[in-house]
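Here is one chain, start to finish.
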Amino acid sequence: MTTWKDRLADTMGPDLAREIDIFETQIELRRQDKLEEKVFAETRLRKGVYGQRYDNGQRHDGIEVQQLDYRSEYPTKGVETVWDAPGMQRIKMPFGGLNPDQMDVLADLAEEYSDGICHVTTRQDIQLHFVHLEDTPSLMRRLAAVGVTTHEACGNAVRNVTACPLSGACHDEVFDVTPYARAAAQYMLGHPDFQDFGRKFKVSFSGCASHPCGLATIHDMGLIAAIRTANGKESRGFTLYVGGGLGAVPYQAKLFEEFLPVEELLPTAQAIGRVFGRLGEKKNRARARIKFLVDKLGLEEFRRLVREERKVLPEDPRWTSYLEGVSSDRERPLQAPVSRNGVPPPEGYDLWKKTNVYRQKQSGFVIATVALPLGDLSAYQLRNLAGIARRLVGDHVRTTVEQNIVLRWVREEDLPELYTSLQAIGLAQPGAGTIIDITACPGTDTCKLGIASSRGLAEELRTDLATQFVQLDEAVKNLRIKVSGCFNSCGQHQVADIGFYGVSRTIDRHKVPHFQVVLGGQWTENAGSYGQAIGAVPSKRIPEVVRRITDRYIRQRQGEEKFQDFIQRIGKKVLREDLEDLMVVPSYEKDPTLYSDWGDPREFTMSDIGTGECAGEVVTPLQFGLTAAERELFEAQIQLDEGDFPKAWHLGRGAMLQAAKTLVREQFRDVPDEPEAIVSEFKKRFFDTKIFFDKYAGGKFGNYLFRPYEQEAEDFTDDTARKIIAEAQLFIEASHACYARLEPEQVAPMTQLSRLSRSTLRKPGGAQ
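Its structure:
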């Protein structure tokens, strides 16, 4: 008798079917404790299966549980075993390509195995949350039956290959990069030379250099379409960048090759994979991305090693076989354009068309963006969207890095019908690609690394801005806001016009959710520049931050001045001064609303340290010291903006020293001011004892202090200054977190702030 698994195996092919069968066996072996957890963890990650945060440590019925993941330490409260804990399933969508059959299956899986929601990510993937581990093999088989895999969606491998969703239809593209992105994704998937990595590897394709497209500069390997003319003949190729990445310490990718012929795309990628696999860091995951290898070796040496590796690669016919079909690998419309008599458009149509519709270079056709708040759509919406696509565009659907879905090859005359159909299922929101189209990572909703509620903040900002969208100045409408729940930049906050990432602060032993305000990033020109943090503001005050910054931009903008130019001209110092009153946190008694996050009614408990005499707040020397470190770091950023790289570098290093000294003096008040003594005492008292270590990051942030004092930079450049400033920011955040973990008796309370102010701000002659 033929089973459904046999029928699916016939559709998937024997190799993929066998892989899923093996994974199912490994799940059972792990359940029986017959497979080492370390091995199983990487196995499931390579299948796209993540552990996830579970309602912030609270069950929906209010029963407290431990943070759950697929580890062997079984929780003792709330659930019997770790297998009861839901996780997240990531699903790869190379270059974001989707068709209606795949959309139907995704909708079915969301209903049957998840919470009924499909989530589009900033890598054009699809994610399903609250999926049980034991259900994942069945889910994978059903995806594979429609040509979709979860293999290497996570883990130390090549992640989803992204590409511009306008590829093939954009007026400004050099050529359509879709077939090349598809070929790269297929070639790298499971290839032995792309397996032995210490961390993930991200690849993107851009059709042009001026637009965001594939965001080449933030990728481990970013490719931008290029044409070279020789002897009157045009040849296709790519401008190749390597070693980019956002994350905690952002690196802009370096130019590896001005023109890489398309014939050399795959062998060069293979050579890069081999060099990275052989020389990349394996033990210290914090230094295991290829950006650190390029930085360590230097671009010239890295390029030399790759070229040498390329010379000795055994010939592979797949390097060029895909090129034979490139000329015919073009999308064709489902229907030819026709002319219809004009019909009055439905209400709201004009605004939606203005913001969500892009006219293709092919006459008579457009691309319509389906804007997805927070990147989410329900199974019901996705299933109906599949039906709309079947009727109007066929297989021409793609996800975007801004967490939306686009329908390509829409006939212009079908736009009113499309809008009405989207409106009927709640997917006709205008504002795609504008200030209300806010990107956000999962944050504290489901991510175990989330510090603050990025989704909660994004929803609040979107709601607030949407109510006034029509009245907004056009220059403000076109800004991008991006939010990350922590410093890891999954929300891409560093390349937004206005970015935010979650941090925490401790006030009177209460934790207060904050967001660092990041300015100076550039979304265009493939993420042309990275922004920097100018200060942390309580989460509940971030909407006011957006209002003040955008209002100042409108008031003081010069002509058609772009936002990045405005930030550079005004300066971060002035902008920070405009926000400093928002950074001051009143006591819990005065304003308890600041002590909870967006979308979470739970509040922090009262501190054991009461208010002092004169109704002043209790302030510790540690709080003052860390504030001084932040101030010094901000001065480093000012010097960086002014081009004084040596001074910026030394101020960044000094900011870390100030934070370290502050911590050390909680245990050793008489530590000398000499840097060597401070660093030595910090290492002995906080690093070697692991007091400074974070649960997830370990001691990597401590190393940021040691390196610049062990060896001063050989040269002071924009890159070296930016790097140490980013590392100093992380070191200071880790110092705040360390302070929050210290036992109360380890922190010596200081005189009330009001009394301190009177003693330190006394006028000459004793006058007050």
